[in-house]
Amino acid sequence: MTEGRVSLGAWLTKAEYRLAQAGVESPRLEAQVLAAHALGQTRSWVVAHPEEPVDPWAFGWSIWRRASREPLAYIVGEREFYGRPFAVDHNTLIPRADTEVVLEEAVAVADLLATTQGEAGLDVLDIGTGSGVLAVSLKLERPGLRVTGCDISPGALTVAWVNASLLGADILLVRSDLLDDVTGQFDLIVSNPPYVATAAALEPEVALHEPPLALYAKEEGLEFYRRLAEEAALRLNPGGRLVVELGDFMLGPVQLVFEDYGWEVVGFRKDLTGMPRALTLAPPILS
């Protein structure tokens, strides 16, 4: 063993212990991921090479960050979404499996709309695009769609542009507070709006590190659903649809918000736990 170095296996044991003491849920897995990231290797390579000599100081900063409950995705700079790697940073929410349910619902709705006018005739808007996971994934899943993503955060739009560029998705990105600075009409609008009530208790990874602008909403989490109910109907083409992500146990309250504005619930999609996660709505008929 080179002087000053330790075996990778010994380092992993110590790192796992430190992360476990800090309350990290999967300390062994995350220690392996952090080592793989620092070494430029895969996690399977790390597991298979415990005898490899490493400089322990090269890993210290990343372990300190994770032990401070900074999310793993921010440390390694990416998170997988629908089988694709997406760049993330502190300007964006970390993509979650819940939002994959919204993507699947949006693709299904787009396919249904395409039966009447063709995929190439559909204009889609992703409101609050963040890292761009919905806008980019929709474009890649259905290349004929014309997709726009908007967000109020310039930092988030930069990340979305990076992801669109790296993954080869030809989408338009616009800085806008909801629909304020977006032009045109759309056949499908999708949104994962902020829906966490401002008084909610969250894990440190979320509460201390993810952007509050993308997380919290007033009115017990209903603020942005109400704004969407007010504004989105004017921007949908005849026969258009709105698909929104739902927080836990929010189907009833969100449905009531939209029904107050004359929207009709078309359907919803559940996640793997059986929780309603994506809600599809038809706008009121405007006179």
What does this molecule look like?
This protein is of the alpha/beta class and 287 residues long. It is 42% helix and 21% strand. The strands form four sheets. A seven-stranded mixed beta sheet has the order 7-6-5-8-11-13-12, sandwiched between helices. It has a two-stranded antiparallel ribbon with strand order 1-2. A hairpin with a 2-residue loop joins strand 3 and strand 4. Helix 6 crosses helix 7. The radius of gyration is 21 Å and the shape is elongated. The model has no long low-confidence stretch (mean pLDDT 94).
Biggest beta sheet summary: 7 strands, mixed
CATH architecture of the largest domain: 3-Layer(aba) Sandwich
Kindly report the spatial arrangement of strands forming the biggest sheet. 7-6-5-8-11-13-12
Low-confidence stretches: none
Distance between the termini: 79 Å
Helix content: 40-55%
The percent range for strand residues is 15-25%
**Continuous helix count:** 13
Summarize the helix and strand pattern as letters. EHHHEHHEEHEHEHEEEHHEHHEHEE
CATH topology name of the largest domain, in short, is: Rossmann fold
Provide the residue-averaged pLDDT: 94
CATH hierarchy, class of the largest domain? Alpha Beta
